[in-house]
Amino acid sequence: MPKKPAPIPLTLGSRTLATAYPYRPPGKRHPVWSWRLAVKSSTTGKREFLPLGRLAEAAVPDAMLGAFEAHDPTAMATDDGDVRTMTDLLRVWYASLEARTGDAALACGTMDMYRLQAIHLRNLIGDVRLSDLRQGHFEQVRDRMVEPTYRASRDAERDGKFGPKAKGRGYGARTINQALTVCQIALNHAKKTGVQLPDRVLDPRTFRVKAKRGQERDISRYRDYTPSTEEVSTFYSKLRKRSGAVAHFVFIAWKTGGRSGEIGKLRWSDLEEARDGFYLALEGKTGRRRVALSPDVAEEILSFRRPNQGPHDRMFGKTYGARGSAHIVRSLESQGVPEERQFTAHGLRRRWCLDLIESGVPISVYVDQSGHSGSVALEHYARIDDRARRAAAVQVSSHEDIYGFLGEHGLSVAQAIEILSAHLEAQRASGDHLRIVSSGEAF
To answer: For residue range 119-143, what is the model confidence (pLDDT) as tens digits?
Structure first.
């Protein structure tokens, strides 16, 4: 048997995109090896093989490139030249995601979603120069993705390798909204990296559509709304009496900050009881984390468990994670909550993250519990309202008053604390502190 050639990688800079392997030795009619290309599946994340045929070793690289471009027809596999068009921006942005390592690396499913949506954007507005980018281009993305002809062209391009074909329909609201959101993320990346963008306002999310196919509606007003603790508590109290599954979903999102997909995958075994209390194990795009629960929260979650459910049974149906926000919005509408104050599961996550930030927990604890970095917390989750602004003003005023008072009396903070401690100790010895506390007086 002839010596087997070594595998040949298809590389781009420091990244290996695919690898060709010889798998059938030469025969009487064919004096060269047969080769096949190993690539990562966009649906399962596992390796799949594309046949290249019998090729001389020198001809394998060209065949690899052609097969890979057909499998993944993106503009990502190019050099890192100047960022001038939307295609250039998508390429550089996606490459920055691939370069992440360790805890910062995104899950395979998230990367596949980003890549497929970037392909849509490349096909529809990729040749537009960034300096010429306008809101009308994002509206064009929405209108073209609704058309059955565009989806049919994508199905033909992908050759049915990524799920069933559309059967004469255009893309749904979820896919269109994902594409517009990915566009916004890429534009944010451009701003952070210093890429020159036009001065005009660019907001792709303005053209997101309602869940019903083809029906246009600006849902950004309440999709981005972050409810107050009182609003969530009132909503949950009413919901608890009627809908068990939705109430269960809302309560976990409110008390753990879990993403919709993370909550949808939960099993009862993920509610862990340790020596020091309860934890809920959540696993999503940033990996696995354990969120600490108070005993009353754990007891409320367990109250939704049916007697016939075992530890390995799912808390929710298989597709509930994708539909959870829709159920929440419908429940809010049934309770008469106006559109501008409606929220989704991610609004509950923002509420939880904001409560964590306002409570003053160390940033390391916040990162561990929330599943994202401290910079993301400050940029996206630290929502500032008028109440927070007034509280800051009062805090500064009180700070100035205290230091001004101490300065007038020639005291330092340490001296003032020492005097107050001695005074309190004397009151405790005499029992006067009980009278003072009950009357609300200050010493």
So the answer is: 889 889 888 888 888 888 998 898 8
Q: How many CA atoms lie within 13 A of 258 on its CB side?
A: 31
H/E segment holding residue 35:
strand 34-40
Going through 45-86 in order, the beta strands assigned E by DSSP cover 47-54
Please provide the distance, in angstroms rounded to a whole number, between the alpha carbons at the two ends of the chain. Answer: 97
Edge-to-edge strand ranges of the sheet holding 34-40: 8-12, 15-24, 34-40, 47-54
Question: Token digits for 358?
Answer: 């306002």
CA dist list (Å): 254 to 35, 137, 228, 301, 350 = 53, 37, 11, 12, 9
**Using N-to-C axis directions, what is the helix angle for 229-240 and 244-256, rounded to 10°?**
150
pTM over 0.85: no
- The model's pLDDT over 309-363, given as tens digits with 9 standing for 90+, comes to 999 999 998 888 888 888 898 899 889 888 888 898 988 998 998 888 888 888 8
Between strands 277-284 and 271-274, the pairing is antiparallel
The encoded tokens of residue 182 equal: 């990915």
**Considering all CA atoms of the chain, what is the largest pairwise distance in Å, rounded to the nearest integer?**
108
Average pLDDT over every residue of 410-420: 79
Residue 216: count other Cβ atoms within 10 Å of its Cβ. Answer: 14
